[in-house]
Design a protein that fits this description.
single chain; alpha/beta; Rossmann fold; Helicase, Ruva Protein, domain 3; five-stranded parallel sheet; two-stranded parallel ribbon; 59% helix
Length: 364
């Protein structure tokens, strides 16, 4: 036990005695030493209430406890911890989250790999409970594939599942891009990355288009600085932080080649395949059902043939589910424009999408 830990325990023990707290404050200190940040917030509140008692001896003891806490963490980190919002308990059960994952359209390979990953983590927790050796394996993931294939959706669900299993203390989801990680001046990027890591600890840090960190030749040194700090965090906080990097397949391969230690921090690589035409139609029907719309027979027939053509002729800009969502949003806007001019529309009028509602750029 180092001097900062000893000082924190001693000050909290003294505060326990003068406030007759029956060891609760000392328990907080021990939890803090075991890296429980929620205990830090609790101790700050206890110290604040103790200072309000207007007893000079208690006030001095509370101040000493606060000073020891600042020395233990450092002023900046303690400020980040105390200002962060408490994560509310997720009302959805583990079974419901697994059902959400498995009910996603398509993504058979993705769902199979994630289910295997969850099964492995569940068994390791059971082995640990029975006193058996549990191999330490990184929970960090790499998602590769084209846009609109569900990478962010799956990442969010995985974070919540990990929290339900007790693998993550908070389970919150934080999405960042290059601009959130790279600073404008040499030497500042490391500090920026550290702040992002501190905010993400206990949850999932999702870095979309991760390859953009290193693909700009004019800021290559900034990218290297970012990756150095990120690679260190991947190892240092792997017990309570999941980092998911995502992006196009080929650029992501180059991204992993840019830093020798980066690839070794990830042991799960999942390829998200493009949706088939039937899966895209299923996504469209799902959006309609969720928002109380329905497609006319003519529109349904149109999409059955049109999506076959789109998938056959797709290029690198093909956006999969995002393409479908954009079409859906434009159809509902056209529908609203048409129905707003109608006197006393029926329920079917308000629900049905017809040929006239199709976006102009795809309408035959």
């Amino acid at each position: 036990m180092n001097k900062y830990e000893q000082d924190l325990l001693q000050c909290c023990s003294t505060l326990d005695d003068v406030t007759n707290s029956d060891g609760r404050i000392s328990d907080c200190a021990r939890a803090i030493i075991e890296n429980n940040e929620e205990a830090s917030k609790k101790l700050c509140k206890i110290i604040e209430k103790a200072s309000e008692l207007k007893d000079p001896h208690i006030t001095r003891t509370a101040i000493a406890a606060k000073d020891s806490l600042i020395k233990f963490y450092g002023h900046q980190r303690l400020a980040i911890i105390c200002s962060s919002k408490e994560i509310e308990e997720d009302p959805i059960t583990l079974d419901e989250l697994m059902s959400q994952l498995n009910q996603l359209v398509g993504l058979d390979n993705v769902k199979s790999k994630v289910n295997d990953l969850i099964a492995f983590q569940k068994v390791q927790l059971l082995r640990k409970e029975k006193g058996l050796h549990s191999p330490k394996s990184t929970m960090h993931l790499a998602f590769t594939g084209n846009p609109g294939t569900g990478k962010t959706t799956v990442a969010r669900i995985v974070g919540r599942i990990y929290r339900k299993l007790g693998l993550l203390s908070k389970g919150h989801f934080m999405e960042v891009s290059r601009t959130d990680l790279i600073a404008g001046y040499q030497g500042q990027t490391a500090l920026k990355v550290k702040k992002v890591i501190e905010a993400a600890k206990g949850g999932v840090l999702f870095i979309d288009e991760a390859y953009s960190i290193t693909e700009n030749d004019h800021s290559d040194s900034y990218g290297r600085e970012c990756l150095t700090e990120l690679t260190k965090a991947l190892e240092d906080y792997r017990d309570d932080l999941v980092v998911i990097v995502a992006g196009y397949t080929e650029p992501m391969n180059k991204f992993f080649e840019s830093n020798p230690g980066l690839r070794s921090r990830f042991n799960t690589f999942i390829e998200f395949e493009d949706y088939s035409s039937s899966e895209l139609l299923e996504i469209l029907n799902g959006l309609c059902e969720k928002e109380d719309y329905c497609l006319s027979k003519e529109v349904l027939s149109y999409f059955e043939s049109e999506l076959d053509r789109v998938v056959l002729e797709k290029n690198e800009k093909f956006a999969n589910g995002r393409f479908i969502r954009n079409i859906f949003e434009e159809m509902t806007m056209n529908h609203a424009r048409r129905i707003s001019n109608k006197t006393n529309p029926s329920i079917m009028d308000l629900k049905e999408i017809i040929i006239d509602d199709l976006p102009e750029d795809i309408r035959k």
